[in-house]
C-alpha cells in the first residue's frame, strides 16, 4: 500500500528544498545565463561592479593580508615614534623656556655686573693710591737718607778739619815734655794702684816741663 501511494511529505519536502535552492541562487547570474549580453546595460555593469567591490572589501576586512598587517603595524610604530618625538619636542621647548632668563634674573645679573664693575673701579683707585703713597714714601726715604748722609759727611769733615787744626796747633806748642804735661793735666788724676806708685812718674814729667834742653824735648 505504501509502495503504491508514497508519502506526500517526501514530495513536499523535495519541492521545498528545490524551491530553496532556486531562491538561494543568484538572480542576476541566472538571467545573464538565459539572456546573455543582449539586454545587459551599463547600469547593470555598475551594479555588478559595486557588488563585487563590496564583497572584496568585506573579504579584505575579515581576512587582511600579511603585508597589510605589517604595514598597519609599521604605521602604528610610526605613529608611536611621532608621538614620542612630539613629546620630546614639547619637553625640549619646556626646558628651553625654563632655561630662558626671566626678567627678574636678567635684572639681577645686570645689577650684579654693575656692582662688580663699580667694585673693580674702586679697587683700582685704591691700588693706584697705595702705589702712589708707597712711591712717595720711598722717594722721601731716599731724599732724607741722602740729605742726612750729606749732612753727616759735612759734619764729619768739619770735625776732622777741626781735629787736624787742633793737632797742628798742639804740636806747635812748646816742647814734647810740655805737651805731655798738658795731656796729663787734661787727663786728671791717675787712678791709684797699690802695686805701682805712679806719682813719681808724674812728678818726673812735670820736672821736664819748660826745659828745651831736656832729652827728647824736640820730639826725637
TrEMBL record:
Biological processes per GO annotation: clathrin-dependent endocytosis; intracellular protein transport
Family: Belongs to the clathrin light chain family.
Biological role stated in the UniProt entry: Clathrin is the major protein of the polyhedral coat of coated pits and vesicles.
This protein's name: Clathrin light chain
Biased composition (Polar residues): 90-99
Biased segments, Acidic residues type: 74-83
Annotated stretches, region: Disordered: 1-25, 63-105
GO annotation, cellular component aspect: clathrin coat of coated pit; clathrin coat of trans-Golgi network vesicle
GO molecular function: clathrin heavy chain binding; structural molecule activity
Keyword annotations from UniProtKB, A to Z: Coated pit, Cytoplasmic vesicle, Membrane
Subcellular compartments: Cytoplasmic vesicle membrane; Membrane, Coated pit
Membrane topology: Peripheral membrane protein
InterPro entries given in the database record: Clathrin_L-chain
